[in-house]
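Human: We require from you a protein record containing the residue sequence and its fold in token form, and nothing else.

Assistant:
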Amino acid sequence: MKTKLSYGLLTGLLCLFFVSCATMPGGKTDSQKISYTYKTVEVSENLDYLSTKIKYPQFNDFPELNKRIENTILSNWKNFKSYSKTEWNDIAALNNRGTSKLPAFEYLVNFEVTGNKEIISVLLNTYIFNGGAHGNTSLTTLNYDVASKKYINIQQASGLTYNEISSVCRNQLYKKLIDDNNNDLPPAEKDAIREMINTGAFPQAGNFELFTVDASNVYAWFEPYSVAPYSYGVQKVLIK
């Protein structure tokens, strides 16, 4: 069931918050899976210069995790909203376009919730369009140990070192992005992608901050441009 909470008028336009209930995916096929109840909060706002659609989870029993998620989502949105008004007006003026003819910028956020008996994993996917040929996608992941009430890193989740994680990721990405396209990619493009993979999956902590846990599986995530050109999209690699 979905209920609507009033949030007030913003510059004559209504920003709406919605709340609906759901649970983490469960299943009998993997004993590691367990369900945690959460609510989906939806934020929707349409201004001349910015169209916003945001969804994020809030868990029934984990207020600290909820606060971290909400602060991350709403602070990033407010910062972009402040920036985008001036930027949108500048573009409209530069192109001599009336405000009614220039498309609004976009700020879209969706999420995935996975995990197991010990860990809740939240993946936040943010898409921003502020002019140009295409928008940009950025990812945020939070991996919360329910017993210790602390956030864990990919080494703690997988039991692997950064060298081991890097090796698994690079080998899988080589196969997926290069070897499987053997007949389609020219040598120069293969070399360029291989160099991007080697850089983006180099064994250092900063390259593997994005990961999720799903039952007994651990996945590394890579944003567009990190290990391949934009057209290849987001990359997800099973590391264990």
Remarks:
- The chain has a mean pLDDT of 86.
